[in-house]
Specification:
By secondary structure, the protein is α+β, with helices and mostly antiparallel strands. The chain folds into three domains: 5-81, Helix Hairpins (Orthogonal Bundle), CATH 1.10.287.110; 120-161 and 200-257, Urease metallochaperone UreE, N-terminal domain (HSP40/DNAj peptide-binding domain, Sandwich); 264-378, HSP40/DNAj peptide-binding domain (Sandwich), CATH 2.60.260.20. Helices cover 25% and strands 26% of the residues. It contains ten helices and 15 strands. It has a four-stranded mixed beta sheet with strand order 10-11-15-14. A three-stranded mixed beta sheet has the order 1-9-8. It has a two-stranded antiparallel ribbon with strand order 2-7. A hairpin with a 2-residue loop joins strand 4 and strand 5. It is elongated and about 130 Å long. It binds zinc ion (2 copies). One zinc ion is lined by residues 147, 149-150, 204, 206-207, 211.
């Protein structure tokens, strides 16, 4: 036992009452069994600390002590400090410490029956045209809705909750626990009202006293143009209705867009590949392409090479509410014929002779042309 109370609390002899209080709180925290667990002398030390604080926090006792008497010594005239309560100042302090340690649970009032409903998450798979132009879809969502029988009051019609007598409507019951720190008041939810502070004797039969019922609800979803796989839409107030008539949560919808057989999306743009016979690529042509907007004409210039791109402005993916759209980029795939008759072979040979191409030179094309750049982009490189 350490009888130098100033040393025990780690304060100077002229420490202010505030300093003494602070130091005491700090030691309580440090020596708390949950913290100091491993330290075998914590129990002894906390007793010393309590004794020291009992003396130094009381101006009269502190004065006696400063004059050389120990107010806690047997026969000192004062009841020794014990764990038996009655030390109002300590109790307050313990409450403060305990409250801090439990995140303020001890200060909480009754729990509301009316709380916000949970958010819901659904998924929706779209075809590419739906993502390009936007769409509306009906989703059937399993959820909670407000109980119409009790209007969310949780009580059978004509009845109302009564105040819980066990906790007096506070929702919490407290009890005093003895510990090394002295008497500690702990609070916990009232077992008779589950912390609500009120008791419903006649719960609504429709919702079993929860204020809401489980059902499937049809929700009309407006999908804006331009959504893609990974887009999450939020529809406010279409989540689960809250218990006890509480506000509804939100409905979130994860979008997935299915691959399209003809069109590939890259941001706001769409890409497709158009197969063009070699002769048409050489002579030039106007071809009709079936785009997502219907048939459109694509002009092929004479001498069009494999991989050239024809851009159709404004036929790409819609950009939300702005009304603007990306482009459709048509990649030309020139089809090289295999001559299927002597006549075709002769014609091609004649053409080659006319163009001096009977013995073509080996010429490497420069790497990184339009097509390879695009392929890299689509491959995510
Ligand atoms: Zn009800
Ligand atoms: Zn209660």
């Amino acid at each position: 036992m350490n009888n130098d109370y100033y040393e025990t609390l780690g304060v100077a002899r002229n420490a202010s009452p505030e300093d003494i209080k602070k130091s005491y709180r700090r030691l309580c925290r440090e020596l708390h069994p949950d913290v100091a667990g491993a330290s075998p002398d914590a129990e002894e030390r906390i007793k010393d600390v309590n004794r020291a604080y009992q003396v130094l926090s009381d101006p009269d006792k502190r004065q006696q002590y400063d004059l050389g008497a120990d107010p806690l010594a047997p026969g000192g005239g004062e009841a020794p400090f014990g764990f038996s309560g009655g030390a109002g100042g300590f109790q307050d302090l313990f409450d403060t410490l305990f409250t801090a340690a439990t995140g303020g649970a001890a200060m909480r009032g009754p729990a509301p029956r009316r709380t916000r409903g949970r958010d819901l998450l659904e998924s929706l798979t779209l075809d590419l045209p739906e993502a390009v132009f936007g769409t509306s879809r009906d989703l059937t969502v399993p959820t909670f809705a407000h109980c119409e029988t009790c209007q969310g009051t949780c009580c059978a019609p004509g009845t109302s909750p009564r105040r819980c007598q066990t906790c007096g409507g506070r929702g919490m019951v407290s009890r005093v626990v003895r510990s090394l720190l002295g008497d500690m008041r702990t609070s916990s939810p009232c077992p008779d009202c589950q912390g609500f502070g009120s008791v419903i004797d006649s719960p609504c039969p429709e919702c079993a006293g929860t204020g809401r019922v489980r059902l499937r609800v049809k929700v009309a979803v407006d999908v804006p143009a331009g959504v893609g796989t990974g887009t999450r839409l939020r529809i406010q107030g279409h989540g689960e209705a809250g218990p006890g008539g509480g506000p509804a949560g939100d409905l979130y919808i994860d979008i997935r867009v299915k691959a399209h057989p003809d069109f590939v999306r890259d941001g706001d743009d769409l890409h497709c590949t158009l197969q063009v016979p070699m002769t048409a690529a050489a002579l030039g042509a106007t071809l009709t392409v079936n785009t997502l907007d219907g048939e459109r004409e694509v002009s092929i210039n004479p001498g069009t090479a494999y991989g050239e791109v024809v851009t159709l402005d404004g036929l790409g993916v819609g950009r939300g509410m702005s009304g603007t759209r990306g482009d459709l980029r048509v990649h030309i795939e020139v089809q090289t014929p295999t001559p299927s008759s002597d006549e075709e072979r002769d014609l091609l040979r004649t053409l080659a002779a006319m163009r001096g191409e009977e013995h073509p030179e080996a010429k490497l094309a420069h790497a990184g042309g339009v097509f390879s750049r695009l392929k890299d982009k689509l491959a995510g490189r």
